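in:
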């Protein structure tokens, strides 16, 4: 992407275009497309971290604007907040995709592009951007959506199916953007982390509807307690 394209997609937190270029260079050749900045309130007490943008997000330049976004809007309604009350971002900033050749009628073939789960390397490559956003937002509560965001902050040993709906006071994984070869290290500062299922999960597993509704009640109570 050109410098102008990057600057147009930086989002609310003004990130360094040079730093973004460095992240994109690390994943050159990977099946990733576009770039999406984070959006919302900063500084602010609430931050939400998702997995990665999908096709709709890259096209429109808005986080969570597809089907999962409609589910997420239901989260906000249950929490009695709006998108303007928090900062929304993701662990990976470009869309991870996969192409599949589909055999059509009369032997005609076409390529179908769909989203895929980002790799741990891709999450690591974009880590300096999320770190910069957390520093700028200074959230009191970070809501992680799904395993990718959860493990980016708390490490591989965590699974959302085991820890959803529970608030954790913890240091988080960060990187030294100038010494990426050193890998992750733990932050000096602690944050409240509240893991939740990714809103896309309920689209494939409707049995999670009641589970998520209960988690949202717990989260609302946590917000009230921590913000007092």
């Amino acid at each position: 992407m050109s410098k102008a394209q990057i600057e147009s997609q930086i989002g609310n937190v003004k990130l360094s275009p040079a730093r973004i270029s460095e992240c994109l260079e690390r994943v050159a050749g990977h099946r990733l497309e576009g770039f999406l900045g984070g959006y919302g309130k900063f500084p602010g007490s609430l931050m939400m971290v998702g997995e990665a943008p999908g096709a709709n997000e890259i096209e429109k330049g808005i986080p969570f604007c597809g089907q999962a976004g409609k589910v997420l809007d239901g989260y906000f309604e249950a929490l009695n907040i709006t998108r303007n009350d928090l900062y929304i971002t993701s662990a990976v900033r470009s869309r991870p995709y996969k192409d599949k050749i589909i055999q059509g009628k009369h032997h005609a073939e076409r390529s179908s592009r769909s989203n895929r789960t980002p790799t741990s390397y891709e999450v690591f490559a974009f880590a300096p951007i999320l770190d910069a956003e957390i520093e700028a937002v200074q959230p009191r509560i970070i809501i992680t959506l799904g395993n990718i965001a959860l493990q980016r902050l708390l490490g591989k040993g965590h699974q959302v199916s085991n820890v959803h709906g529970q608030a954790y006071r913890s240091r988080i994984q960060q990187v030294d953007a100038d010494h990426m070869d050193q890998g992750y290290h733990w932050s000096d500062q602690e944050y409240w982390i509240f893991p939740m299922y990714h809103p896309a999960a309920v689209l494939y597993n409707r049995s999670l509807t009641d589970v998520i509704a209960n988690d949202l009640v717990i989260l609302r109570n946590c917000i009230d307690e921590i913000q007092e």
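note: The mean pLDDT is 90.
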